[in-house]
Design brief:
Mean pLDDT: 89
Strand content: under 5%
Distance between the termini: 24 Å
Largest sheet: none
Radius of gyration: 13 Å
Order of helices and strands: H
Shape: globular
Number of helices: 1
Oligomer: single chain
Helix content: under 10%
Low-confidence stretches: none
Number of strands: 0
């Protein structure tokens, strides 16, 4: 999971001796069908990111910016979206199961 997040943030292109990639800014990132289960993406900028088909089960997405992101077909089972911005987010076919929604409700 951490490797997938680093790859999406450009981790493959960086010198290993430098600081870790900024995995909090993934705006417009193509994360199509990645396994991000259990990832801590709290506070991340995922606006307009392609997350369709991703496994985000158990992921922490608290206060994440998911505005305009594509979550079609993603698995958000047991994910925490508390205080996340989901304005204009595409959720067709997204699996919500015991998911904490931005308003604190469970779906």
């Amino acid at each position: 999971t951490d490797t997938n997040v680093e790859r999406a943030a450009g981790g493959d292109e960086q010198d290993p001796s430098t600081a870790e990639p900024d995995v909090r800014n993934l705006s417009k990132a193509d994360l199509y069908e990645l396994d991000l289960s259990g990832a801590d993406l709290s506070g991340a900028n995922l606006s307009v990111a392609r997350l369709d088909g991703c496994d985000l089960s158990g992921a922490l997405l608290t206060q994440a910016d998911l505005s305009g992101a594509i979550l079609a077909g993603a698995n958000l089972t047991d994910a925490n979206l508390s205080d996340a911005n989901m304005e204009m987010t595409i959720t067709i076919g997204t699996r919500f199961n015991n998911t904490t929604m931005p308003d604190g409700s469970t779906r």
